[in-house]
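Hi F.,

I've been meaning to write this up properly since the lab meeting, where we talked about keeping a consistent format for the predictions we share between groups. The idea is simple: the sequence comes first, exactly as it goes in, then the structure tokens exactly as they come out, then a line or two of notes. No screenshots and no reformatting. I'm using this chain as the first example so we have something concrete to point to.
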Amino acid sequence: MEHVGNEVSAERKFDPMEQSLSNSELVSIVVPVFNRAHLIARAVGSLLQQTHRNLEVIVVDDCSNDDIQGAVAAIGDPRVRLIRRQSNGGAGAARNTGIAAAKGAYIAFHDSDDICTFEKIERQLTLLKSLPEDFVGVYCPVLFHYSLDEADYGFMNSYVRPYAWETPLSGDLSARTLLRNSYNLPTLLVHRQALVDAGLFDELLRNNEDWDLALRLTRVGKLKFLPEPMYLAPISKSPAVRAQHISRLPRYSAQSYVRISGKIRHAGLSTPAMAGHYGAAGRYLVMIGHPVLARRFFRAALAEKALAPKYWAHLAFTHLPSLHRRILSRELRLSKTAPLL
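Output, unedited:
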């Protein structure tokens, strides 16, 4: 792996004398990147302007084809490091690489196409330090918004996660995490040791790796919710662009639901959402051409929820795999107009 150093920026230089006793803790911010050299200055720029000045930004290049080295060098701040992976491993593997290189006792995550408000790290760190020892992290809402040109502004839409009905928001989130992911990973500031205790990211997963980590992290300790949307994530209005988002690719979704539902089962954890997890695995398996394996998951869903007609219907349709795939593909196309979760 290659480490790239940088010179101090003329725009805003890092002055160690700016630090005070209240913000002296080093925060390591891990930014995985793949073919986003054109966006990295914007994303990292919002981190370098943080009111908490004692931080390092670790940009982990997951084998990009563009000039990420030049883009990072142009940022010109000694707090930014570029680490280039030797093979493409996905976001989870890139984040693990960043965590391994981190020097801080606190870890934050940031995606390469997003920005955050300048006080995010300071607000989260101050809150985390004030909490009892059984709290391992602080997270906040994320504001999703359409990325549009002026001509399309009339189609603007935005929303925040967690949604208003998602509870609990603070404390022991382990039961809630069994239902779905409890938080958006880039909004999280967490003790590094808690990540180590949880086992870091599963590098076999190419999507839902953040949910998989959340399932383990929320059993290590509690999380605190800071109810201000300090993290902003643009989403494309284009169905073609959204269809290529990694969270929408059936082969990766099949793999993640199969693997994660298996982990939940082997851990002996109980959740009313288990039928839904098995059903999701079955649907994605049908879409990638594995109807026989899909039957096992639809049967498992029925074992959890025997009176659910949709799982009986899916099980029957696995004997007509071509028709089943067309039906599920149509459902997926329709869902592409919905916000990315």
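Notes:
The first strand starts at residue 2 and ends at 4.
Confidence is low (pLDDT under 50) at residues 1-23, 337-341.

If this format works for you, I'll send the rest the same way.

G.
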